[in-house]
Write a structure and sequence with these properties.
Layout: E1 2-3, H1 5-13, E2 18-20, E3 27-30, H2 36-42, E4 51-53, H3 68-81, E5 86-91, E6 107-111, H4 116-125, E7 128-132, H5 144-150, E8 156-157, E9 170-174, E10 179-183
Length: 191
Amino acid sequence: MNVSLEVLINSAKAGKLISFPTDTVPALASIPAQAELIYTAKQRSLDKPLILMAAKAEDLWDYVKGNQTEYQIWQEVVSQYWPGALTLVLPASEKIPQVMNPTDPTTIGIRVPNHLVAQNILAQTGPMATTSVNLSGQPALENRAEIEVNFPDVLTLEATEYKGLGIPSTVAKWTGNDWQILRQGVIKIDN
């Protein structure tokens, strides 16, 4: 359903599923406490974690935990690549609902998209549980019309171009002393 920015943000805060454009592929999103809605809508297996997306890095640090050296390393990577198509998988804090990563609630993927519309929405909703908009195992949907046909109950933003790069973000997991690339996207980081 096609709605205004105000309706989209208020609906998201109320726990409804929304979609918005990002720099990679459109996001399917909910507040973290309602993340199970994403799994249901996508027919997604619970062993596939969601990403916590926010408007800026500062909004995400409470959701991860590490020592001072790790935070410094993470901050250097974030300063270089965010906002952008890089998801960092870091140790999760107690603030993360288990449904965000049911099979390994000790970690969480975090990202700040390089997209002004996404940042505007996330600045008003707070960090959101996100993934690509598609049925699990299918290619990501790339425009609002496809999203509205396949996910008629998901709120989309009127008069907004949804096209991003079409390539999902790079996913890099912190191993305790370096990065393990789980999915290579556009961004290449040094280990």
